[in-house]
Amino acid sequence: MSHNFNYTNPEPPRARRSNRLSGRVRDLPAPEKTNKTMKKIIDHSTQLAAALALGLAVSVSAQSLSNAPAAPPPGGGLLGDDYSQVQFGYDHERVDVPDLLHEYGFVYNQPLAQTGLEGTDFNLNYDYLTGAAGIHDDLNEGLAGLTEYLVQSWGKPFVSGDAGYAWQQAGGVSRKSFAYSATGGVEFAVLSNLALTPFATYQAEPDLYNHEVPLAYFPDHRWDYGLKATYRLTRQWSASVSADLDQYNRNDLGYLAGITCHF
After folding, report:
1. pLDDT tens string 165-193
2. Beta bridge partners of 164
3. Taking all residues of the chain, what is their mean pLDDT, rounded to a whole number?
4. Could you tell me which of 83, 74, 75, 124 has the C-alpha nearest to residue 258?
5. Which of 195, 199, 172, 194 is nearest to 183 (CA)?
6. Contacts of 94 (CB under 8 A, 6+ apart)
7. Please, are residues 248 and 222 in contact by the beta-carbon 8 Å criterion?
8. Which helix (H) or strand (E) holds 98?
9. Any residues with CB less than 8 A from the CB of 66 and at least 6 apart, and which?
10. Of 115, 195, 222, 131, which Cα lies nearest the Cα of 169?
11. Around Cβ 34, how many Cβ atoms within 10 Å?
12. Are 198 and 190 in contact (CB under 8 A)?
């Protein structure tokens, strides 16, 4: 018996793998499409990296600012500061008439320039002294000038010069005079909010000499030596007290207290 079989040889395995591979190759996009896709991926990656870098920079900058130390509080001194001050005090004269003079004053200080370790301030001063012991004695004086100072690690040495006008009413007699003064000293910052200032002042009113009114105690010139303490209460306010001794009379003591508003 004969059997007829239609037998077909299977496709060789290599040919089948070749067909699968060739099918995958056919499924891949064209080279130009691949390039465009890769370019988009690179562009997006670059933009993302730039955004992350910018965010990191902003974060670091903000952190640096938040960690920056706060501005130090102002010291107790007055040199180089913008302020106005009102004053009250008295001069105690034990051997002259009147023996007690009340003093009221106003001071304005404006810094003009500070270059390196040198500074210049403009200052305006008004003083009113009054007293009575047998006669009534009034003195008004207005001065304006400049203060030059140096900034050193141990303090601020300074000199100041002022000029202006003075007018006096004593015992029914009125007199007027050109007035000027010069002061030198050192402002020491002994604490963060306390300054001590020893000073010497020369003051002159040439036409107020006691020729016409011998009892009026306003000589034409004198030296005063004193010490001033200034204490910073807040950033805007400070208080000061001072005492000075007259050159001609060791019994002539002057005391002055002031309150200062800083701008």
Report:
1. 999 887 778 889 999 999 999 999 999 99
2. 143, 179
3. 77
4. 83
5. 199
6. 251, 252
7. yes
8. none
9. none
10. 131
11. 11
12. no
CB 219 within 8 A of CB 61: no
CA–CA gap between residue 224 and residue 72 (Å, rounded) = 35
- What pLDDT is attached to residue 248? 63
pLDDT at 171: 75
Per-position b or e across 172-197, b if 16+ CB within 10 A of its CB = eeebebebbbebebbbbbeeebbbbb
The closest of 252, 258, 107, 112 to 183, measured between CA atoms, is 107
Of the candidates 72, 68, 71, the one whose C-alpha atom is nearest the C-alpha of residue 60 is 68
Per-residue model confidence (pLDDT) at position 51:
61
Give the pLDDT confidence score for residue 76 in this predicted structure: 86
The identity of residue 179, as a single letter, is A
- pLDDT (tens digit, 9 = 90+) per residue, 182-228? 999 999 999 999 999 999 999 988 877 554 444 444 556 788 899 99
Query: Looking at the whole model, is its pTM more than 0.85?
Result: no
CB 180 within 8 Å of CB 163: yes
Tokens of 118: 């040198």
Tell me, what's the pLDDT at 74?
Answer: 64
Largest CA-CA distance found in the chain, in angstroms, rounded: 172
Mean pLDDT of 24-50: 55
Tokens of 206: 């040439």
Strands (E) located in the chain: 83-92, 100-115, 118-132, 136-150, 156-170, 173-191, 194-204, 221-232, 237-246, 253-262
